[in-house]
């Protein structure tokens, strides 16, 4: 039987009477890349914010590793939601050191993470002088510092150039081999097709599809069908 690292049970989020997320039940298999797809404004970021404790569900349950989610679980969840949490006046090492001091993590782990996200050679360069791709990798490093079981990435490829996209894509694909489950949200079908093992498609706050990646060439057809159905609803 497949183990799920994270599940949601009929999760709903309302803002002033408007439902941004409507009864969504996700099942995220352990040690995979799960692509959360949907048009802009579909509710993807709202879902991810509920999984990371930024927002509280109006109703429904979130389960992590077989138990009801609590804030203690954030110790095993790494997240890069919206903009990377980077101090621009600090170096890559110093940014990680700030987080490491909070978590009680060794300098050896900082060096390991800098190597992992390919920022080991940035030296005294301040993060404010980094390219967007470098800032994304630094944000990813901060999320990875505590050796999370689950990594949540919200539109991580936005604004990256082709080289940055390829580097991040390859990094994401490696994580399940290291015991890390990845949830990555996007509206770019081609990128999810190249990285994800399983997908969920969100449209108008509702889950229209969840399962294995469709056969090659069928993802766009499925996505457009679900987006049209829920837009009409």
UniProtKB/TrEMBL annotation:
Record GO terms (molecular function): ATP binding; ATP hydrolysis activity
Family membership: Belongs to the ABC transporter superfamily.
Source organism of the structure: Schaedlerella arabinosiphila
InterPro entries, A to Z: AAA+_ATPase, ABC_Gallidermin_ATP-bd, ABC_transporter-like_ATP-bd, ABC_transporter-like_CS, P-loop_NTPase
Record-annotated ABC transporter domain positions: 6-229
Protein's UniProt name: Lantibiotic protection ABC transporter ATP-binding subunit
Keyword line: ATP-binding, Nucleotide-binding, Transport
Alphabetical list of Pfam families matching this protein: ABC_tran (PF00005)
Keyword Oxidoreductase: no
Cross-referenced PROSITE patterns: ABC_TRANSPORTER_1 (PS00211), ABC_TRANSPORTER_2 (PS50893)
Keyword Phosphoprotein found: no
């Amino acid at each position: 039987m497949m183990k799920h690292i994270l599940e949601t049970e009929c999760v709903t989020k309302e803002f002033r009477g408007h439902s941004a997320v409507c009864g969504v039940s996700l099942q995220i298999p352990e040690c995979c890349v799960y692509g959360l797809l949907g048009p802009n404004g579909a509710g993807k970021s709202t879902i991810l914010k509920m999984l990371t404790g930024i927002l509280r569900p109006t109703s429904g349950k979130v389960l992590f590793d077989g138990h009801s989610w609590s804030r203690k679980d954030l110790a095993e969840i790494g997240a890069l939601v919206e903009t990377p949490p980077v101090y621009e006046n600090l170096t890559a090492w110093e940014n990680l050191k700030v987080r490491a001091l909070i978590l009680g993590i060794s300098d050896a782990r900082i060096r390991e993470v800098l190597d992992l996200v390919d920022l080991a050679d940035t030296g005294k360069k301040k993060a404010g002088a980094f390219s967007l791709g470098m800032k994304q990798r630094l944000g990813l490093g901060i999320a990875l510092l505590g050796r999370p079981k689950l990594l949540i990435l919200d539109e991580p490829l936005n604004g990256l150039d082709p080289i940055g996209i390829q580097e991040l894509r390859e990094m994401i694909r490696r994580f399940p081999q290291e015991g890390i489950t990845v949830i990555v949200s996007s509206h770019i079908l081609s990128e999810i097709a190249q990285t994800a093992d399983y997908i969920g498609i969100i449209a108008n706050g509702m889950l229209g599809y969840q399962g294995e990646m469709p056969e090659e060439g069928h993802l766009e057809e499925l996505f457009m069908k679900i987006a049209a159905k829920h837009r009409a609803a």
